[in-house]
Amino acid sequence: IKGAIVASPVFCLGEVFSAATPALFLAKIAGLSVSSAMICSVAADDLYFALSEQLSLKGIQVRRFTTATTTPILNAYTHPETLGSDRLADAVGAWSLFPHQHSFVIDCGSCLNYELVASEGIYLGGGISPGLQIRLKAMHDYTGKLPLLNASDYTGLFPGKTTKDSMLSATIGGMIAEIEALIEKIEKKYTPLNIILAGGDASFFGKYLKNKNFAHPDLVLTGLAQTLKYHFETK
Q1: Taking a C-beta distance cutoff of 8 angstroms, is the pair 201, 132 a contact?
Q2: Domain hosting residue 221, numbered range
Q3: For the chain: N or C, fewer Cβ within 10 A?
Q4: Which of 36, 31, 28, 30 has its CA nearest to residue 9?
Q5: In sequence order, what are the beta bridge partners of 116?
Q6: Domain end call among 64, 88, 108
Q7: SS3 content of the chain, % helix, strand, coil (to 5)
C-alpha cells in the first residue's frame, strides 16, 4: 500500500510512504488531521474494503478512484470499464503537471504502461507490455536452466558473453529500444511532447533512456490528489 499526505487547497504531494497492511498504513497517518481519502486499487477488492473500513472508522471520508470517477480530463478509451484505474490516474497526474500540453507517460512498474494525454485534456489511451521483473521471472519460470537475475547487474554491453549478460542485455536493452521507438512514433504527431517516467523502476530506466523530460515515480498519487482537489472545487 502506497500513500501520500496532501494539504488543501494546493493538493501537492507531501510525505509519500508505504505500508504492508491497512493497520500499518493507519499507523503512518496517526495523529494527523485527515478528512478525506481517495483510494486507487488494481489488486483484490478485499484490500480496498479493509483499508476503506478502517479509514471510515477514523471519520475519514473515503472515495474510490475508478474509471467511472469524474476527473479533470476526458477519457477516450473505447471500453473505459476495462481500463486499469492506475493508468487513468497516471494520465490525470500528467495533465495536472502539464495542463494544455501533450504528455506521454511511461510507467515502469509491474507492467510497462504507456499513456498519452492530448493538449485538449483528453486521455487517448496507450499500451501495456510486461514489466522488467515479469520478463526476468518468466525466463526463469518457463525454462529449465535460465537463472533468476537481478537487474542491477546490467552492464549495457551487447553482445553478452555470459548467460547472465545475454539475458540482461537483451531484456533491458530491448525494453529501452521499445520505449525509445514508441516515443519517436508519438512525437511525429504530438509535438512538443512532455515525456514522463513514472513507477517503481523509473529511476533505473532513467539512467539509460535518451528521451526523457521528467521523472515522477509517484505520478499515480499525484493523479489521485488532483482528482480529489477537482471534486472539492466542483461541489
Answers
A1: yes
A2: 67-235
A3: C
A4: 36
A5: 104, 125
A6: 64
A7: 40, 25, 35
Q: Is the peptide bond before 159 cis (omega within 30 degrees of 0)?
A: yes
Secondary structure letter of residue 153 according to DSSP: G
Rounded Cα distance between 201 and 112, Å, is: 10
**Residue 115 corresponds to which cell in the numbers above?**
499513456
* Same domain (yes/no): 31, 42: yes
3-state class (DSSP) for residue 196: strand
In 3D, which of 200, 193, 187, 188 has the Cα closest to residue 214? 193
Answer yes or no: are the C-beta atoms of 227 and 72 closer than 8 Å: yes
141 is catalytic: no
DSSP track, 144-156: SSPPP--GGG---
Q: Show Cβ contacts of residue 89 under 8 Å, excluding neighbours closer than 6 positions.
A: 40, 65, 219, 220, 221, 223, 224, 227
198 and 173 fall within a common domain = yes
Q: What is the pLDDT of residues 134-146, one digit of tens each?
A: 999 999 999 999 9
- Spot the catalytic one: 45, 46, 86, 153: 86
Q: What is the pLDDT of residues 62-90, one digit of tens each?
A: 999 999 999 999 999 999 999 999 999 99
Which residue in this structure is represented by grid cell 528521451? 211
